[in-house]
Amino acid sequence: MAAGDTTLDTVLDDLETLVGRLFDFLELVRQELYARLDEASAADEAPTPETISGLARVLQGRLALEGTLVAGAGVSFAPDVLADSPRRMEWWTRPREEAESQPLPVTFDPQSLSFYDYVEAEWFVRAREDGASVVGPYVDAFGTDEDVITLSVPCVHDGEFVGVCSLDLRAGELGARVTRALRELDRRAALVNAEGRVIASTVVAHLPGSLLRDLEPGRRRGERTGWSVLALD
Which residue, 111, 148, 190, 222, has fewest beta-carbon neighbours within 10 Å? Predict the structure, then answer.
């Protein structure tokens, strides 16, 4: 992007394009999941963890393409969808220091102090109740311990909600990319999420994570993200 061509709208449009591409990936994962569930249904079998094991290849391949921007991706199943597995996540992470993605080690034992009750997580609930969603930034305390932004889509197969397909963006890396674009503007500016939380900024007084309360009521919001790019002059 040429320096003289950057505007508030072009920064937001570029972000919407990026997020749209990542939602396309989630749609691919969702269709792969449906295909495997269809196979189990055609065989008159209850789906099991083995039914969806092939999703790992799809997830690992995409994580390799995205580099370090995407921290992880996968499917989080609704309770009791898979036989003999009351809760299950087919989730792969891409640590910064590792060349290959790895399965996410999580605990689904309610008696454990590290129990991951993902069905109560905002990203899971919003996808289940509202459809495609963008949540964050927030600290991923049960996964990477990093600030992430989660993109999610619900999975409804044969009329039944079966889970959520999601991916985590590293908020810091995304923010660094956006900040470079904002610096090409002829004004001070910030990227904020739907709640007014700063994701990236060129103003020291409005660092990532801070809240901008007095936002313009008529500001443009991204259709996929709900985010806005604001001038802070």
Answer: 111
Would you say 180 and 147 are in contact if contact means Cβ atoms under 8 Å apart?
no
User: Domain 9-171 maps to which CATH number in 3.40.50.450, 3.30.450.20, 3.40.50.300, 1.10.268.10?
Assistant: 3.30.450.20
pLDDT in tens, 4-48: 467 999 999 999 999 999 999 999 999 999 999 999 999 999 999
The domain ranges of the chain are: 9-171, 173-231
Identify which of 143, 141, 227 has the alpha carbon closest to the alpha carbon of residue 189. Answer: 227
Q: How far apart are CA 183 and CA 168, in angstroms?
A: 25
Contact 197, 137 (CB under 8 A): yes
Give DSSP secondary structure letters for 105-158.
Answer: --B--TTSTTB--GGGSHHHHHHHHHSSEEEEEEE-TTTTSSEEEEEEEEEEET
Query: pTM of this prediction?
Result: 0.93
Helix, strand or coil, per DSSP, at residue 10:
helix
Phi-psi region of 47 (alpha: psi -120 to 50; beta: other; left: phi over 0): beta
Predicted local distance difference test score (pLDDT) of residue 217: 67
